[in-house]
Amino acid sequence: MAAIPTDSTPIPLVLADTNRRTVIWSAASKSYMDVQEGFTTLKRGTGFWVYSTDSVKVYAPRLLVDSAYTRPCTLHVDTGWNMIASPYAYAVKLSLTDPLRFWSPMKNDYDTVSVMEPWKGYFIHSFDARPIILSGKPFNPDSLEKVILGKVAKLSKEAGEWLISVKAVSGGKVDNMNSLGVLSGVQSGSNSLNMAQPPRSPDGGPLAAFVGTSAKTLLDRSVVPSFRGTKEWLMYVEPAVGEKSLELNFEGVADLPEGYNAYVDNSGDCFEITDESVVKLSLQKGHYLTVIVSDDPAFLSKRITSFDLAQNIPNPFNPATTIRFSLPRSYGTDGKPTDGVSRINLSVYDLRGRLVKQLIAGNQKQGARYSVQWDGKDGRGKTVSSGIYIYRLEAGKWNGVKRMVMVK
Predict the structure, then answer these.
(1) Residue 141 maps to a domain
(2) Which of the residues 101, 166, 215, 288 has the least number of beta carbons within 10 Å of its own beta carbon?
């Protein structure tokens, strides 16, 4: 990610070798645009990408070196991600509410910073179109001001706080700036400490991100207030371009509060994870999975993984009995939980197959357990005679049948 501290007048940018790939991020189309033949037009405070296997020489006809270019300057950003740069020939610091993402070739991933240096381009995210006003004051790293990397980043976590980091590896490339957890500064219903996922680099590395409150919002940090019980984080992952597999590595699970454990649900296959866990996925396109943290020691055993129709209790019975059944969660072909409903029919029949009474007919939420009581009466309210009866549950293409005995 590069930039040139140039004048505000659009000028041609010339790369010494036009075979190298140069791209600019379009906030309007939310995509990269290739620069044809190494030429483009840049304005002051604009960043761009140069993709090359070695060093690149850039020629600029005019640099911002006189006092006129130390005055306050306004950069305008659109909703979503924007590529910006220092409009000065020296480093300037942004406020903590404006975290910057800079691509680190050494890490092959983004760093989160709060200082813009000249000759470097940065991504910044905005929830609306707005101006960013810079005072023109140079950043002095030797001053008493402490540089805090990242949006309200903390030098140490407070008691009760924890973060689990998730690193995606595919084709020798990584996406390791992803974390979920609990921070004390998060208010219920607030996303002020969440961080949006920056666009993938033009070389098409892997992607791992958490789905925000909107299905179109991807986060690389998703934090919530302290909780008891069970909390789920839906993740979206993609392998590197041209690759057919991806690995997820976890760190920070050991820091969970006592009694809490972490799990991964991959299309209904749910298992516990530790800091040594490596989740290997074979996929060629985007896929969803869920990271779960729970303080329930019986979490796995309580999960509903299949349809189930239990034996009624009591059996034999008189005058009433209870029938329990379970409906599992369903998943799309991309692994995303549908969190939908199943249309079910639970009815009682006699041994000749004649309907005695319909107990339930309609939609029921998936991923839940249910119980219904039969009072031993038929559809007209008359108590049935002693004998063997059949109860049948139909849920989509699945059905289950059990027998029960009425005695008097």
Answers:
(1) no
(2) 215
